[in-house]
Request: fold
Amino acid sequence: MCTILLDAKDRTRYDSVISFALRQLLVSQPRDDYRELLELKIIFLGGIPPRGIKFIAPGAIHHARWMTKALYSIKIWLFRRQFKLTVREEKGLHDVCLFIVLLYVRAWFTAPYAASSPRNVLSFLNMLCTYNHQAIAKTASVKFAGHLWYLSEELVGLSFFDVDLSVEVKRAMVKAMNDRDGLNDPQKRVQVNTSTCSAMSIEDKEH
Reply:
């Protein structure tokens, strides 16, 4: 099986990504392609899904559904020796697959949880800002910066109901709120400097 070329120093990170996918597979998935994406993610990183290594025949592709493109991309990479790909095409495919499995899949599957949305959105931005593929990180960060309404000063209050956020962080959030003068109406959408967002935190009163 042709999987990703692993760097030993990143093995721990890949293992945590696989663990996330395995936990998601324990949850009832509303669509078969959701389950398939999680299983392909595990296979891509060198793991074995609970149902074993198997592949579903490719289905229809449509511009409106990004997941289909993700499924095709990972399958093409896994079976890349059966295609006539140029060096440039193979590298580009590899980079896209890495972005999908390391960053985007987690963001997608955690999106439905409203209380954790501010934390998850900020975590995704943090990872983008430190992602080692600068071209992909810059493009995705600029695009994602236009969809940050979950990070508004009003909706960030959802984080007080986030069970995965520590009491210490929530207390820091309250302190940050008290330290603000409160004279100005909050922004409807936070403005983020994508070059420095790696230092942002949910309790940061400057954001």
Remarks:
- DSSP finds seven helices and no strands in the chain.
- The mean pLDDT is 81.
- The chain has two domains: 8-110, 113-207.
